[in-house]
Amino acid sequence: MAIIGTSDEPDEGHYDLKLEQLAERYHPIREPVTNQYPPNNEQAVYSQRPSGGQVLVSTINNTKPIKHNKHPNSLQIVLDFFNDKNFNPDDGKEFYEYYEDRQWQTSDGSKVRDWRALAKYWVHQKALIKEKNRLNKKQASHFRDNLRTTKNKDYGQPL
C-alpha cells in the first residue's frame, strides 16, 4: 500500500538553492535583528504628573468627531435632504412640522439623535401605510356584495 503525501509542507529531503537565496534576500539569516522595537523598560511617563505618585494614563481614543446636528435648523435643510434622496417634498414638510411641534422628541419623550435617519424611517413608514391602505381598499364588485352572494337570485331553485 502506498501513502500519498497531501501536506503543503516541503519535502524535508529536498533542498532548493534558488528558494533559499530568495528567502535570504528578504530575511537575512546572518544579520541579527536590532533596534526593531524601542526598549520597554520604563513606565509611561506623564509630563504633568506629581513627582510623588503613580499616574493612570488614559488609553481612550478621544479623537471621535462629535455630531451637533441633532435636528435641522430650518425647513429648507429638510427639503434639500428630501430632494437629494428623491423623496416627496410634501412628506419633508410634514416631517419637519410634526417634529418641530414636538421640540424634536420621539414618542417616548427622548430627544432625536439623528434627524436624517428619522426622516428615512418616516418615509419608509409612510410607504408601508400607503401600501396597507391600498390593499384594504379593494374595489367592491357590482355583481357581489360583502357576503359574496350574487344579486341575481333564482328563488325557484332548491338550496
**Uncertain regions spanning at least 5 consecutive residues:** none
Counted by DSSP, the helix tally is 4
Helix content: 25-40%
Distance between the termini: 85 Å
Radius of gyration: 37 Å
The average pLDDT is: 75
Task: Give a count of the beta strands, DSSP E runs of length 2 or more.
Answer: 0
Morphology: elongated
Structural class: mainly alpha
Residue fraction in strands:
under 5%
Task: Give a quick account of the main beta sheet: strands, pairing sense, barrel closure.
Answer: none
Strand/helix succession = HHHH
Task: Give a written overview of the molecule.
This protein has four helices and no strands. The relative contact order is 0.06. α2 runs antiparallel to α3. It is elongated. It has 159 residues and is mainly alpha-helical. It has helices spanning 17-26, 75-84, 89-101, 115-136. The chain has a domain at 75-136.
Topology:
Layout: H1 17-26, H2 75-84, H3 89-101, H4 115-136
Helix pairs in contact: 2-3
Task: Quickly list its features.
elongated, mainly alpha
Gist of the model:
With about 160 residues, the chain is mostly helical. The protein is built from four helices and no strands. Helices cover about 35% and strands about 0% of the residues.
